[in-house]
Amino acid sequence: MRLSVTSWSFPQLSLEEVAGVAKALGIEAIDVGLFYRSALDRAEILGDPAGAAERLRGLGVGVANYYHLFGRDPQDRNLALPGTLDANLRDLDAVLRFAEAGGIPTVFILPGVVNPGQSRGDAARVAAESLRALLEVPGARGRLCVEPHVQSWAESPDLVRRLIDDTGVRLALDYAHFVCLGFRQEEVDPLAAHAAHVHLRQARPGALQAKFAQGTINFPALLGTLRDAGYEGALALEAVHQDYMGTLHDDVLTETVLMRDAVRTWLEPR
Predict the structure, then answer these.
(1) In a 10 Å sphere around its CB, with 0-12 CB exposed, 13-18 middle and 19+ buried, how is residue 208 labelled?
(2) Burial letters 241-260, b for 16+ CB under 10 A, else e
(3) Is 198 helix (H, G, I), strand (E, B) or coil?
(4) How far apart (Å, rounded) are the C-alpha atoms in residues 126 and 88?
């Protein structure tokens, strides 16, 4: 397992500045996406995947993951919305060529939301149908994963496990989304066997993000669960400063360093 840091953790930094922070912290990779000053150019990724990948080569750090949204936000063109599959298939083909050209091992997307007129079951069914088709795009089985999240249709470990059983999809796993909704860490642990990418941030029931010393996630236990499940991928530090679920109030740099040190202490015991 190796460390990464998410570029959207630092909304006022350019991509080059995020890479500089990562290097200063001794972290050898970053996660990239479509948000804030570090945003990649979605149109370039879709229109010129190789050219978009070439722009990442001068950063001086690796890229551990690319977070792709098919639409403008998590609702637009989401996986559970009927009528979006053909456009999403076209986009995913370009996204995967971008990831291949850039040496990016994983790409994560969101599972979709409960759209107007749908039940949770309706959303789950449409999303599973979409994912089965998306996973047939060349390269998708090796790179594509989904992140179950608060306010998606997939808000419980049981629902996520059913999606895995229905599609074979792997996960961008973030325990915080489940813990914030009141699930115990041990209820999330079985999902570790299906992780392709992992996000790390502290949380507690009712709070998607908490200061490191004030949350309930047991990170030594979490890391041990990942190791025992055979996980060898990136551990992306994802403390954020966003107007989403009350995550505006933490010192992101301090929380990033505290999590980095906790992971290093576990990975390299003295």
Answers:
(1) buried
(2) bbeebebeebebeebbebbb
(3) strand
(4) 13
Determine which helix (DSSP H) or strand (DSSP E) holds 63, and give its type and residue range: strand 62-67
Task: Chunk the chain into consecutive blocks of 10 residues (it has 270) and report each block's average pLDDT, rounded to whole numbers.
Answer: 96 96 97 96 96 93 97 94 96 97 97 97 97 97 97 97 97 98 97 98 95 95 97 94 71 94 88
Q: How far apart are CA 253 and CA 255, in angstroms?
A: 5
> Beta strand 29-32 with 2-6: parallel, antiparallel or unpaired?
parallel
Of 190, 99, 92, 108, nearest in space to 147 by CA: 108
Going along the chain from its start, the domains and CATH numbers come out as 2-267 (3.20.20.150)
| pTM strictly above 0.85 | yes
The pLDDT assigned to 247 comes to 63
36: left (phi over 0), alpha (psi -120 to 50) or beta: left
CA–CA separation, 125 and 264 (whole Å): 40
